[in-house]
Amino acid sequence: MSEENRQDGDNKQLRRKIPRVEQAAILLMSLGESDAAEILRHMGPKEVQRVGVAMAQMKDVSKDEVSYVLNEFVDAVGGQTGLGVGNDEYIRAMLTQALGDDKANSLIDRILIGGNTTGLDTLKWMEPRAVGDIIRYEHPQIQAIVISYLDPDQAAEILGTLDDKVRLDVMMRVAALESIQPQALQELNDILEKQFSGGSGAQTSRIGGVKRAADIMNFMDRSIEGGLMDSIKDMDPDLASTIEDLMFVFDNLVEVDDRGIQALLREVSSEVLVVALKGSDDAVKDKIFRNMSKRAAELLQDDLEAKGPVRVSEVESAQKDIITIARRMAEAGEITLGGAGEEMM
Questions:
Q1: Distance (Å, whole) CA 17 – CA 344
Q2: How does pLDDT run across 199-244, given as a tens digit for each residue?
Q3: Boundaries of each Flagellar motor switch protein FliG C-terminal domain copy (predicted)?
């Protein structure tokens, strides 16, 4: 085998082993502190959190892994001039190659559209309990708009800080919310900007809806989600059924085709996978094992057996991480998710 072919084989193997978020972490850790900080300054809260966690967990990174990531980045930059014409395309290609689709998209929009952090966007950087305190005494419709605007996992945590009756009212309004006048959204944004000294401009007018409600429910603690779903069923059984059909939980991975599972596993670290499987059904474990090499499956089984007791909260957190990756890949058209609705059929 030629040296070039051997290197290509090594690169393909590394690509399967290194999730994109870890590639981004390696790239940033390879830069100086000031350069890495400048890049992070332009990233959103979820992006910073994910890359930061990956950087904190990074151990024993080999020289080959660093070389692979840096070469991938240099190839992306060197393949295009980015000068004079086509800057937008250059920026999109470079950031997507370096950071992956899910992290690059919002950063690309922020750079190309030129939007600063708005009052509503400022909430994304805040602790869920702090946001809950801010909206606690607002009108439920305002609460619903804010909840709909934020990412589902953060929205779920905020709802967890509210009283049961308020939580039910807000979730019903989120499900019924299809759109909002841009002027109304701008007014809400302006109020928050005065409070946080944020930027300006809010262009989103379509928020909320049953799908958004289902997305938020996916990220709630099971105890809260179960009680809230029961309350929604009491008020509107049809709505509850629709939300359940749109929800995607960890056990629904058995409905994903084999190619989709294989693609998903390439993006999930082995540590997260082990914890997530500690609390999963045998059907999910079998699905995962079937879509790994025999050696990888044996190692995973050994890790599961060697892993001691794990808190339920840790299992749920790991499963949510995998669900989040699966949903991002589904939105990008890389995999197709099943779901409760397909399972019932």
A1: 35
A2: 334 344 456 788 888 888 877 877 788 888 889 999 998 888 888 8
A3: 231-337
CATH ID of 250-344, from 1.10.860.10, 1.10.150.450, 1.10.220.30, 1.10.1040.10: 1.10.220.30
CATH topology for the 119-246 domain: Annexin V; domain 1 (1.10.220)
Residue-wise over 79-115: b if at least 16 C-beta within 10 A, else e?
Answer: eeeeeeeeeeebbbbbbbbbbbbbbbbebbebeeeee
pLDDT digits (tens, 9 = 90+) for 129-188: 888 888 888 888 888 888 888 888 888 889 988 888 899 999 999 998 877 777 777 777
Max Cα separation, the chain? 69
Rg (alpha carbons) of the chain, rounded to whole number = 22
Which has the closest alpha carbon to 98: 81, 117, 79, 84? Answer: 79
Which of 244, 227, 239 shows the shortest CA–CA distance to 173? Answer: 239
The one-letter amino acid code at 159 reads: L
Coil, strand or helix at 81: coil
Contact 83, 154 (CB under 8 A): no
List all residues 6 or more positions away from 62 whose beta carbon is below 8 Å from its beta carbon.
Answer: none
3-state helix, strand, coil in the chain (%, to 5): 75, 0, 25
